[in-house]
Input
Amino acid sequence: MSYLLNTWYVAGWAEELAQDALLARTLLEKPIVFFRDSQGVDRCPHRFAPLHIGKIVGDSVQCPYHGLRFGGGGQCTHNRSEERRVGKECMESV
Output
């Protein structure tokens, strides 16, 4: 079956996703798991831009403001201004 890509699909309702639980769904014939982190953070720590309006780049979410990228564990994985630096040092240069 073919699907329309680069568009929004409903995956569930906020009340379906409890704080300490995993929610499994199949979207576009791909298994996906959803979870809430302990802080419910949806913002870049640099200028507090909401990450949900960013974009997915590889396995990271890219901040729409300065382009910092964050992995699923919340760690900074890429800083455009410091291509060589990743991990904790990523935030020290912003």
Remarks:
- The longest strand covers residues 23-27.
- Residues 42 and 52 are 6 Å apart (CA to CA).
